[in-house]
Amino acid sequence: MIAPTLIKPLPTRGELKKQLNDDQIWRILIEQSLGKTLDEYFDNDLVKGVVLTDGLIGTFTSAYEMQTNICFLYHLIGNGTGEWKVPSGGMGALVRELENKAISLGVEIKVNSKVKSINAQPNQVSIELEDGQNYEAKYLLSNVAPQVLAKLQGEAVPQSLEGSQVKINMLLKSLPKFKSGVSASDAFVGTLHINESFTQLERAYQQAKAGSLPDELPLEMYCHSLSDNTILSDELNQQGFHTLTIFALHTPAKLFDSEPEKVKELAKQRALAALNQYLVDPIENHLATDANGQLCIEVKSPIDLENEINLPRGNIFHKDLSMPFKEDDSTVKWGVETNHPRVFLCGAGAIRGGGVSGIPGHNAAMAILELN
Fold it and tell me: Which of 37, 49, 127, 245 could form a disulfide with 198 if both were Cys (CB 3.0 to 4.6 A apart)?
C-alpha cells in the first residue's frame, strides 16, 4: 500500500491511515515502537533480533525508539513486496548504465569539480567551483546531504543522527569451512547473522551509547559473488575467488572520533573473531593477496565515509529517515523541497530518500516539471 505512493505527491498521515483501513497494522508500524511490537508478538529472542535488524541498518537507535520503525518500513516496502533487487554486475554496473543513458541524451558530466558555494536567487541558481568556474541554471537538483547543501548555501546546518556502521570488504581465494558442517555456499548465499539476538542488539546499543565499542559486535555478512559472479572477472571465478562483506551495527561515529584508526582496527578484530568462532580455519587464511602481497581486506568507519565521500558523520541515509508521508497540515508536496523554491533534493536526504531507490530523483524531476 505504501510502495505505490512513493513516486506520487506525498500523502498525508490521515490519507494513508484511511487507505490502510487497519488500525492494528497502523498502530504496530506507525504509532508504537518496533521493540514493543516484537515483545508483543514474538517469544524467541533470536527471531526477535533477526526481525529487528531491518530497523537498525545504518541507524543508531534502540528498538524502543520510533526511528527504528522508519528504518524497518523502508526495508520492507521495496517493489511493493519487500523484495530487494541487485543489479547484475554490481552497483558499478548500474552507475555505468546511468552514465551511458545520460550522455546519450546530451548530458555533460563534470567530474573532479568540487562546488565551493551555491547562490539561490529569485530567478536562477548560480554555483561557484573551487577552481573558480561559475555556472547558472533555472533550477538546482542537489544529490548531496542536506547538511552539506546548507553549508554551501551559507545556511544553518540541520541536526541529524550520526552514521553507525562499520563495513569490511574482503576478497577470498577460497570459501571457508564451517564447524557445523553446513556448506559455505549455503551459509553465505543469503544474509548470515552473528550476535544479533534481540538481547545482544539492545546490549550493544547501550554499550555504544555509553561510549564503548560493543563487546559482541552485531554483524551481517553477504557473499555477493555467490548470487552474481559477474562482479568478478572470469579468471577469478575460475580460480574459486569470492567477495565477502561484513556490516557491523551499533558503531556510531562518536566512537571513532578520538582514535579513529585504533578503534577501527579493534572493530575489525572483533568482527573477524566473531566469524572465526564458527569456522574450521580463520577467515584470514582464506584472504587473497594483492600484487604487493597485502591481504585483500578494507575497513570503512563512519569517519571514513565522511572524509572520503562527504556523508555527514558517516550517515549512509544522509540524515534521519522520515516517515513516507507528511503531517495533515503540511504544505510540502513531493518531499524534495528546500528553503529555496529553485533548489530541490534529489538524493537520500529527501523525504522518501535512502535505500538506493532513485525515488528522490524521480520526485525532484516531477516537482520541476510541474513548475514548467
Answer: 49
**Counting beta carbons within 10 angstroms of the beta carbon of residue 150, is it exposed (0 to 12), middle (13 to 18) or buried (19 or more)?**
middle
Yes or no: say if 320 and 161 are a contact pair by the CB < 8 Å rule: yes
DSSP string, 51-67: HHGGGTTT----TTSHH
Place of cell 513516507: 324
The predicted-structure confidence for 285-324, as pLDDT tens digits, reads as follows: 999 999 999 999 999 999 999 999 999 999 999 999 999 9
The answer to whether 252 and 224 have CB atoms below 8 angstroms apart is: no
The torsion region of residue 106 among left (phi > 0), alpha (psi -120 to 50) and beta comes to left
pTM above 0.85, yes or no: yes
> Does 104-160+321-371 carry CATH code 3.50.50.60?
yes
Q: H or E element: which one contains 134?
A: strand 134-137
The domains of the chain are located at 3-80, 104-160+321-371, 164-314
Name the helix (H) or strand (E) containing 266. helix 260-276
Question: Can you tell me the distance from the alpha carbon of 268 to that of 165, in angstroms, rounded to the nearest whole number?
Answer: 12
**By C-alpha distance, which of 317, 332, 362 is closest to 6?**
362
Q: Measured on CA atoms in the order 178, 180, 184, 187, is the torsion positive or negative?
A: negative
